[in-house]
Amino acid sequence: MAEERATAAVLDRLHATVLARKGADPSSSYTAKLYSRGTPKIAQKLGEEAVETVIEAVRGNRDGVVSESADLLYHLMVLWADAGVAPEEVYAKLAAREGTSGIDEKNARPKAG
Ligand SMILES: N=c1c2ncn([C@@H]3O[C@H](COP(=O)(O)OP(=O)(O)OP(=O)(O)O)[C@@H](O)[C@H]3O)c2ncn1[C@@H]1O[C@H](COP(=O)(O)O)[C@@H](O)[C@H]1O
């Protein structure tokens, strides 16, 4: 059987897996252990993985960027599940921004003061 090509659909499957870990035994599931430690710990882990990704990028370590990005996305999926955010909500935000330049969007923001 041909090996399945990894695509962004893996994120939806990962989200479903981490959702299913709610209420699981923290001694047998890392995800359940994270939930049991609470929202601040989940947020802290996401921040740590973001920093580790940044460090690998600055070092020019391409493999490290790939590996730390996977950790980052996993922890982001856990944070979304903990916050009750469905991936579709984030996808809809991104879709609504398609075709709008980030520079135009920033210039259209109300001016402070
Ligand atoms: N993708 C991942 C994934 N990526 C990273 N990790 C874990 O994230 C942890 C990060 O490592 P760290 O050294 O930063 O963490 P740590 O020192 O153990 O933790 P802290 O004490 O700092 O909190 C490791 O335990 C990794 O194994 C993941 N754990 C789980 N998944 C996915 O989630 C699914 C469910 O996992 P369980 O909930 O463990 O069954 C798995 O089948 C995978 O698909």
UniProtKB/TrEMBL annotation:
Keyword entries, A-Z: Amino-acid biosynthesis, ATP-binding, Cytoplasm, Histidine biosynthesis, Hydrolase, Nucleotide-binding
Keyword presence, Ion transport: no
Annotated catalysed reactions: 1-(5-phospho-beta-D-ribosyl)-ATP + H2O = 1-(5-phospho-beta-D-ribosyl)-5'-AMP + diphosphate + H(+)
E.C. number: 3.6.1.31
Pathway: Amino-acid biosynthesis; L-histidine biosynthesis; L-histidine from 5-phospho-alpha-D-ribose 1-diphosphate: step 2/9
Compartments reported by the entry: Cytoplasm
Main location: cytoplasm
One Gene Ontology MF term: phosphoribosyl-ATP diphosphatase activity
UniProt cross-references to SUPFAM superfamilies, sorted A to Z: all-alpha NTP pyrophosphatases (SSF101386)
HAMAP family listed in its UniProt record: HisE
The family this protein is said to belong to: Belongs to the PRA-PH family.
Protein name: Phosphoribosyl-ATP pyrophosphatase
Organism field: Azospirillum oleiclasticum
